[in-house]
Amino acid sequence: MKSKVVSAEAAVSRIADNAVVSVSSSSGLGCPDKVLEALGARFEATGHPRRLTTLHPIAAGDMYGIKGIDHIARDGLLDRVIAGSYPSGASSLPMPEIWKMIVENRIAAYNVPSGIMFDMHRDVAAKRPGVLTQVGIDTFVDPELQGCAMNDKAAAAPIVKRVDFAGDTWLHFDNFAPDVTILRATTADEHGNLTYEHEGAYLGGLDQAIAARNNRGLVIAQVKRVTAAGSLRPHDVRVPGHLVDCIVVDPDQYQTTETLYDPAISGEIIHPLADFELAEYGVEKVIARRAAMELSAGQAANLGFGICALVPRILLEEGRAGDVTWAIEQGAVGGMPLTGFAFGCASNADAFMPSPNQFTYFQGGGFDVTFLSFLEVDRKGNVNVSKLGKKPYLTAGCGGFVDITANARKIVFAGLFEAAAGLNLTSEGLFVEKPGKFSKMVEAVEHVTFSGSRARENGQDVLYVTERCVMRIGENGLVATEIMPGIDPERDIIAASGGRVSVAENATSMPLSLLSERKMGLTI
């Protein structure tokens, strides 16, 4: 058999003009960066391939050294990008090239929920007529709002429409058949069988490879190393060799953002619980503590980025790290979800699920509770995490947020009530010493990533946890049902929100134990 091992340059030379290219990645996690770099370099040298459409269920690359999609963010090379998320980072960093192309309307750019992106791959592989789903109705995904379009060029070429089917309203997404899939693994044998022993997740590489193969496409796999044919255990092979055309070797590929390799992320070793840092004392820890009070032992819980990512560390500090099973969209189940650059990975995981399967679990609401952050909340209880017009690259887009919240039984949103307020934490209460720059409780969110009215219609249990109060959606808008000791309800909640949040007559006090610099004595 002819060797499938080729240079990155040889692999990308097979990508034609106008191709639809699917890329498996999650920011720096599993990013086939060497192949994407070679693709950008080929275009610079030859002017080809041109007018590509790229599909990214989760972001490709980050802003901290793994360029990913930015390698191919070039005029003429990219024509259209359909992605669950995009690279994001701090405002102190330069705007990524892909974001410049989006805001300058140089490409058509769409933000499609990650679970729907995986559904699109499965449905096009099976020759079904596109994705039919109720995930995203009444959010920015809905064509009655933005229809996933991130700019005018995308709005002029819709990819989703509302349809009536079986007596109900659904969203229908067009098919995009991949001509090429680019994925990443750890080891390939000479026949192209792929194993993932050093990876922090399987992501959706298998489904994306099948989608390309079933449409007579090309599959390129980037790996760390190659071994002899027949030396891999069949049970360890996650993508079989008959789906793989080209193998590109990069012995220096990073496991995830700013992490060359951590064996606990891939399950090679188990870290003692004492190795994990506890949440630093401060306002965010107070919020995470109150969120953690919504848990019960034995539950399965989903976790998002931001303040809520601290909730597992609260349980760790309280001696309850094993009481809850965490499930994150990249596929890790159990263990200790990581924070910061390594978010999306977990140390000491019990199992790894392929992301498409994890999203099937999420979309159907199989878990007990989800903890998610917010950028802004409006008086109707709508939440925005997906768009900031002034600095768009501060958010990655919706990712799996819309899939997760669509049918979740219980949702706990966590965030600050105001931005950059002067707050004083004491053992007796939390005091607002200086108003914030602006309230995160707004009249109308810039982007509806979560629909408060639809949640009410569906009977979902929704809480909004901040440092000042806990809120719920009432008949006439947001209502604070719990108040932090030290907070003046009239000044610090009603006036600070511009009257968008009211205070319940029977509002209770949040427990002082949330403010303790020692353990809070959490029972779940």
Describe the protein.
Strands 15-14-20-23-29-30-31-32 form an eight-stranded mixed sheet. α4 (114-125) runs parallel beside α6, α4 crosses α9 (355-363) and α7 crosses α8 (311-317). It is an alpha/beta fold and 524 residues long. A hairpin with a 2-residue loop joins β30 and β31 (477-483). The model has no long low-confidence stretch (mean pLDDT 97). It has two domains: 8-249, Glutaconate Coenzyme A-transferase, CATH 3.40.1080; 284-325 and 370-514, Glutaconate Coenzyme A-transferase, CATH 3.40.1080.10. The radius of gyration is 23 Å and the shape is globular. Keywords: Transferase. Its EC number is 2.8.3.8. It comes from Martelella lutilitoris. This is Acetate CoA-transferase YdiF.
Q: What are the main properties of this structure?
A:
seven-stranded parallel beta sheet; Acetate CoA-transferase YdiF; alpha/beta; 25% strand; Glutaconate Coenzyme A-transferase; 12 helices; 524 residues
Brief characterization of the structure:
By secondary structure, the chain is an alpha/beta fold.
Number of helices: 12
Supply the number of structural domains: 2
In round numbers, the mean pLDDT is 97
Second rung of CATH, namely the architecture of the largest domain? 3-Layer(aba) Sandwich
* DSSP, total strands: 32
Question: What distance separates the N and C termini?
Answer: 58 Å
Secondary structure elements and pairings:
Elements: H1 8-12, E1 20-23, H2 33-46, E2 52-56, E3 78-83, H3 97-103, E4 108-111, H4 114-125, E5 131-133, H5 152-155, E6 160-165, E7 168-173, E8 180-184, E9 187-189, E10 194-195, H6 205-213, E11 218-223, E12 225-227, E13 246-249, H7 283-292, E14 300-303, H8 311-317, E15 325-327, E16 332-333, E17 336-337, E18 346-347, E19 351-352, H9 355-363, E20 369-373, E21 376-378, E22 383-384, H10 401-406, E23 410-414, E24 418-419, E25 422-425, E26 430-434, E27 438-439, E28 441-442, H11 452-458, E29 461-465, E30 469-474, E31 477-483, H12 489-495, E32 501-509
GO biological process, one term: ketone body catabolic process
Family: Belongs to the 3-oxoacid CoA-transferase family.
InterPro entries: 3-oxoacid_CoA-transferase, CoA_trans_fam_I, NagB/RpiA_transferase-like
